Amino acid sequence: MSTPAPQKEQFLVINALGGQTTTLVTTFTRLCMEQRCLIVSSRMSRHGTCSALLLQVSGNWDALARLETLLLTVARREHFTLSMSRSTTLEERPQALPYNVFVTAAQRPELCGELCAFFQQLEIDIEELFSFTYMAQHTGTAMLNMTLTIAIPAKTQLSWLREQFLDFCDELNLDAVIEPWRPVH
């Protein structure tokens, strides 16, 4: 008699856009709780008059299906823009080192794409990206501040990567630092 293979944990990834941050967060967290779904990770941010909420929710198949149906109804009623996708646990990945990349530069439309392409060419995964623009206080120059969390394959020689990255930054006139990721306490 064989034992059945363990089921992979199932997730529902929810992306919601709305006008009110507190209403958006309160509504979605309450619905998850009511349907006995666990919020595994969440992010919320305001972008002008629009608020974005990203949730990864886990639960059994039935609970996730009920939540999906309920969210569609609530999104129509509350005028939220909603997208959802089922997901499973990430398959085992090769050993990688988490690093942060901090970049400050004069804003240029192509800059974010150039940074992402640099890491893509080196087959380094970008795990997280956060950026914002602002006007420099003394000069009024439009500036970009970007933070990336990357996963450097363990086989990559760090001194070589730092050299490649600094050459890249010098070529584009970027002020940047690459350093090991550290948990925030």
Please describe what this structure looks like:
This protein has helices at residues 21-34, 61-78, 111-121, 158-172; strands at residues 10-18, 38-47, 50-58, 81-88, 96-106, 125-135, 142-153, 175-180. The chain has 185 residues and is an alpha+beta fold. Strand 2 (38-47) and strand 3 form a beta hairpin. It is flat, with a radius of gyration of 20 Å. 16% of the residues are buried.
Which helices and strands appear, and what pairs or packs with what?
Blueprint: E1 10-18, H1 21-34, E2 38-47, E3 50-58, H2 61-78, E4 81-88, E5 96-106, H3 111-121, E6 125-135, E7 142-153, H4 158-172, E8 175-180
Antiparallel strand pairs: 1-3, 1-4, 2-3, 5-7, 5-8, 6-7
The rounded Rg comes to 20 Å
Tell me the strand order in the biggest sheet.
Answer: 2-3-1-4
Helicity, in percent?
Answer: 25-40%
Ends apart, CA distance between termini: 49 Å
Number of helical elements: 4
The pLDDT mean sits at 91
Question: Regions with pLDDT < 50 over 5+ consecutive residues?
Answer: none
Oligomeric category: single chain
What shape does the CA trace take?
flat
